[in-house]
Design a protein that fits this description.
Elements: H1 17-50, E1 52-53, E2 56-57, H2 58-71, H3 75-84, E3 99-101, E4 104-106, H4 108-112, H5 114-131
Antiparallel strand pairs: 1-2, 3-4
Helix pairs in contact: 2-3
């Protein structure tokens, strides 16, 4: 990733109060413009969805089209339907307890894979020695 271009950045704590206030004001104005544009787009899309042709609203037609794609095996269409219905799966992250004992970490994983634990300790100790 290219990290160039940050040399000319000045932190807020190194700017005058007037400069910080002016930048904040400009940011607030732009934020308001963006919110209004998003709201207008949402309102226009809602109006289009409510238009009817042949006894069906565009929203009903879109739902049917997505449903047909899902029936034909389109996984993205299936995911869109599932997510819209509120059935989106939640990623569950299991938290393990970590205790510090004599500058080594004792994981449950260490009991199952002692070699991996040794490698982690070696990598950490090497990094710690190089940086501190």
């Amino acid at each position: 990733m290219n990290n160039k271009g940050h040399e000319n950045l000045i932190p807020a704590n190194e700017r005058s109060e007037d400069e910080v206030r002016e930048l904040g004001k400009n940011g607030g104005i732009k934020s308001g413009e963006a919110r209004r544009a998003k709201r207008k787009l949402k309102e226009e899309l809602q109006a289009l969805m409510e238009l009817a042709q042949n006894g069906q609203t565009n929203q009903e037609r879109l739902c049917f089209a997505i449903f047909e794609k899902a029936l034909k095996g389109d996984v993205q269409a299936f995911n869109a339907i599932r997510d819209t219905m509120g059935e989106k799966p939640v990623a569950v992250v299991e938290q393990t307890n970590i205790e510090k004992q004599d500058s080594t970490l004792d994981f449950d994983l260490a009991k199952e894979a002692p070699e991996l634990s040794k490698q982690v300790d070696e990598i950490f100790n090497k990094w710690f020695d190089e940086n501190y």
